[in-house]
Task: inverse folding
């Protein structure tokens, strides 16, 4: 995911342990269902239909892409067993956690000019819903219950589950449907393929944690899983949550003019995310394990789609599980919500290793998203295609960079070879050629384009007024922008209108025209990341920052899995250094239930921490069981209450605590990105 809403969104302050509301990435429920979608009507009264230029682009795509290759449709339908009678899954909290029916407008057989034809094809492929057989009598998948698939392996005595979805409720429903259709069997093992939440979050819906603790159920994961499952999105979590509204379009209604797909699935379920730590860690590059009579050969692939990830080959079935490394799309090298840039070349090399290790003996390849591919020839074709597209992305971008093309130009230069453009498995629905090419260049050369003028640039809001003044003011800019918009020159119009709205954030006419331009660009994009960003940007320019995001707390499983050091690191991020001017103190923290010791030191308006030490000259010593800190952070009790009860002890200068608390800032999860869109009050 790359989620893929994979954020823990941990905004906390020690001793107040403020837990910030986070946007529910999985608007998988019915909140964004649009009754007008079936009629193809726009969800926004200010919204516009596709322009003649957009319609022409869509028609050109229909004429140039290989729509006669329908193998993906045949494979996506193959092995269908049954679909449940329901299309909604309720969350335990009472709201709708999942509603595949909100996308039924895609199944009418219509071509929508507001959706890139290739993306519409992918969105229809992702409408598979129900139980599917992958290997007769042995391997099954439940698809369409969440962003990811749940895979079910029949062992000697029970089920082995690969990737258990995002939410307890959808995972529970998936397993219940499996037992209903195939006969009830106990779960004997769960495999987490990688460290993203849509692959482990539903674990409480399929196993009892006591059965894991007493050894009845194994939990298997790749090396580094726990560290990355918890830490990947903590430090910039609030910013990531906000950016998700744009990149994932989480608040866009399901509508031909809005949300159509998430590229690797429809959306993310809005239920309860949990985590049970693994009992078995796959630490070797290639490691074999037999569970309940099923032999599994694990291939560790760290640093590809996730920092901790592994593929699996099943020798008994000649079947290969590709995790999220090989799916029905080119993935993100850089995910627009924010994350460390991935290594496209390493990704390609791992796929190449898969091809040479398992390609000549694999009869079916399936993954945690999308649909399987059957037959050695077809499997090898898809592996080669995805190997080549990631390698080409890396190599061709660097080829251009070595000839002087910069990070601010490469997205307009890089194009995959025609042979890859004509292969569906090389299309970028989750990533995009535009932002992935820039990511490759950034990985090797960084953000600077080597022009001294961009070393210390003015902030956009400071430079924009200069441009507006020199262009003759808003009237001239609007006149030119309107003519560009009318001519279908949308990127050129953006260049002008972005400057104008930054300089004049209250200029409603400029914002509405920019929204119209963004909307047409969104319609034209094959990548959901780009489509959603443009369409969500248009929505915000017209209506302001959305206020309808549901709040989602980090659950107790995630709190237990967080290291204390991670909590303290984030405490330093939530601190306003200006408020800490002149403060100097040391705090010893001791958590007796796990024996951890930390020193927190405030100096030079900076808060640091070190594990394994206690300062002799500490101003304050806090003795707080780790479980007490978790209770405060989960809002089960206040810090002051636990001090009064004697569960947390303070020794020394208590005013140091007040100083620390006075520096803390509660991040606003709805900060303004586009000018003039911030609501006056929440």
Result:
């Amino acid at each position: 995911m790359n989620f893929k809403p994979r954020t823990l969104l941990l905004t906390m302050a020690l001793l107040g342990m403020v837990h910030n509301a986070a946007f529910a990435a999985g608007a998988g429920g019915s909140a964004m269902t649009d009754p007008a979608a079936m009629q193809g009507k726009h969800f926004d009264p200010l919204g516009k239909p596709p322009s003649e230029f957009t319609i022409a682009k869509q028609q050109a795509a229909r004429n140039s892409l290989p729509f006669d290759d329908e193998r993906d449709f045949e494979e996506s339908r193959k092995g269908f067993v049954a679909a449940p009678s329901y299309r909604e899954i309720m969350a335990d909290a009472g709201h709708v956690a999942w509603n595949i029916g909100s996308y039924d407008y895609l199944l009418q057989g219509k071509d929508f000019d507001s959706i890139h034809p290739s993306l519409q094809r992918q969105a229809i492929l992702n409408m598979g819903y129900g139980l599917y057989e992958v290997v007769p009598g042995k391997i099954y998948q439940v698809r369409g219950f969440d962003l990811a698939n749940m895979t079910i392996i029949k062992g000697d005595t029970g089920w082995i589950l690969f990737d258990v979805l995002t939410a307890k409720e959808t995972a529970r429903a998936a397993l219940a449907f499996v037992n209903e259709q195939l006969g009830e069997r106990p779960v004997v093992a769960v495999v987490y393929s990688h460290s993203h939440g849509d692959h482990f979050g539903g674990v409480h819906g399929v196993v009892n944690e006591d059965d894991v603790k007493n050894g009845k159920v194994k939990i298997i994961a790749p090396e580094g899983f726990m560290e990355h499952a918890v830490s990947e999105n903590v430090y910039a979590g609030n910013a990531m949550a906000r950016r998700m509204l744009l990149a994932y379009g989480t608040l866009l209604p399901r509508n031909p003019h809005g949300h159509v797909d998430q590229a690797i699935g429809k959306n993310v379920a809005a239920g309860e995310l949990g985590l049970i730590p693994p009992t078995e860690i796959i630490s070797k590059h290639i490691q074999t394990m037999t569970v309940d009579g099923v032999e599994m050969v694990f291939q560790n692939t760290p640093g590809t789609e996730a920092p901790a990830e592994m593929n699996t080959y099943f020798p008994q079935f000649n079947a290969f599980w590709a995790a999220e490394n090989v799916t029905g799309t080119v993935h993100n090298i850089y995910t627009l919500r924010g994350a460390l840039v991935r290594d496209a070349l390493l990704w390609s090399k791992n796929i190449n290793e898969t091809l040479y290790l398992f390609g000549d003996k694999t009869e079916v390849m399936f993954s945690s998203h999308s649909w399987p591919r059957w037959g050695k020839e077809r499997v090898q074709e898809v592996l080669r295609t995805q190997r080549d597209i990631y390698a080409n992305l890396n190599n061709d971008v660097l080829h251009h960079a070595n000839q002087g093309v910069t990070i601010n130009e490469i997205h307009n230069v890089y194009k995959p070879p025609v042979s890859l453009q004509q292969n569906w498995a090389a299309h970028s629905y989750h990533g995009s050629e535009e932002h992935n090419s820039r990511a490759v260049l950034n990985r090797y050369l960084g953000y600077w384009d080597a022009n001294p003028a961009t070393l210390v640039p003015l902030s956009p809001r400071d430079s924009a007024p200069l441009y507006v003044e020199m262009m003759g003011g808003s009237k001239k800019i609007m006149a030119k922008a309107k003519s560009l918009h009318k001519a279908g020159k949308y990127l050129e119009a953006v260049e002008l209108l972005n400057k104008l709205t930054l300089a004049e954030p209250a200029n409603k006419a400029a914002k509405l025209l920019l929204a119209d331009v963004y909307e047409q660009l969104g319609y034209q994009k094959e990548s959901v990341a780009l489509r959603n960003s443009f369409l969500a940007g248009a929505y915000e320019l017209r209506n302001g920052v959305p206020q309808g995001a549901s709040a989602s707390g980090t659950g107790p499983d995630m709190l237990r899995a967080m290291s204390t050091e991670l909590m303290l690191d984030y405490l330093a991020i939530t601190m306003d250094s200006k408020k800490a001017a002149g403060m100097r103190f040391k705090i010893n923290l001791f958590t007796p239930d796990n024996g951890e010791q930390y020193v927190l030191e405030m100096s030079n308006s900076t808060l640091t921490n070190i594990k394994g030490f206690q300062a002799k000259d500490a101003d304050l010593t806090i003795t707080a069981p780790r479980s007490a800190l978790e209770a405060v952070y989960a809002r089960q009790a206040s810090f002051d209450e636990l001090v009064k009860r004697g569960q947390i002890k303070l020794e020394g200068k208590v005013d140091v605590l007040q100083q620390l608390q006075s520096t803390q800032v509660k991040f606003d999860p709805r900060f303004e990105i586009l000018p003039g869109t911030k609501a006056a009050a929440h």
